[in-house]
Specification:
The protein is of the alpha+beta class. 45% of the residues lie in helices and 21% in strands. The chain is built from seven helices and seven strands. The chain has a seven-stranded antiparallel beta sheet with strand order 1-2-3-4-7-6-5. The chain starts with 12 loop residues before the first helix and ends with a helix.
């Protein structure tokens, strides 16, 4: 964020720019931050957020307070948008194609953060699988079965609880030697089953489907063939 804002100390800039040049995921993150900054400035000008008495403040203080108010307003607006989405679309199974793409983008954005963790990849380790299924199943108000993906080269590492708007999401993490972790995210859904839909966001492969009242989303640094194999393996397993 400091780099995007032009506030990073000079001696660190070459290191960041080298990372951007070498890593497509870093480039995607920086581009997302730039777009967010542009939208924020476009939506909240100094004139809109400063009180009329602010003109007597020193310029630097006025700008700092304006930015803080704009940032707070943007966070509130984003939270409101996510709440509206979760209320308007109802069960996740009833999403339109465009809304499925938005769901995939949100999950991929989450995953770009969590997949780089090493010591804190999960909240509860795989050794407590029975507890994970009971705990997160209770949060989802339905049965949760952890699929075995070893046949496609990934081993269950554990899980954590996330939220998408106001919807609880179980994030099941899987690892493989020499690979970045992948995730199978599960959320409660209603309505009809939906066949898998796949695309790419933030440089990651993402696929989702709806089965027996739950929405499943697979995300990771996967090519199309790997993504398809994981969906084919996980699909029957979640009904076990």
């Amino acid at each position: 964020m400091a780099y995007v804002d032009g506030e990073l100390q000079d001696d660190l800039v070459p290191e960041v720019e080298a990372s951007i040049a070498a890593d497509p995921m870093v480039r995607a993150i920086v581009e997302d931050l730039r777009q967010s900054r542009i939208l924020l400035h476009a939506a909240f000008s100094d004139k809109a957020v400063l009180p009329r008495t602010a003109s007597i403040m020193p310029r630097r203080r006025r700008e700092s307070q304006a930015w803080k108010r704009a940032a707070a307003a943007a966070v509130a607006m984003a939270a409101a948008v996510m709440l509206i989405i979760s209320v308007r679309v109802g069960p996740l199974s009833e999403l339109s194609g465009e809304e499925v793409a938005h769901l995939h983008d949100e999950v991929a954005a989450y995953h770009t953060v969590y997949m780089t963790e090493r010591e804190h990849l999960v909240e509860v380790p795989a050794s407590q699988q029975a507890h994970i299924e009971q705990w997160l199943g209770g949060r989802l108000h339905g049965p949760l079965h952890v699929p075995d993906l070893e046949v496609v080269g990934f081993q269950f590492a554990g899980a954590r609880l996330l939220t998408l708007g106001t919807v609880p999401v179980a994030q099941l993490m899987y690892t493989a030697e020499g690979r970045l972790p992948i995730a199978l995210c599960v959320a409660a859904a209603g309505g009809e089953n939906r066949a898998p839909m796949a695309d790419r966001h933030h440089g990651l492969g993402v696929a989702s489907w709806v089965e027996n009242g739950q929405t499943y989303v697979v995300v990771g640094d996967l090519n199309d063939a790997e993504l398809s194999s994981i969906v084919e393996t996980a699909g029957p397993a979640v009904k076990a």
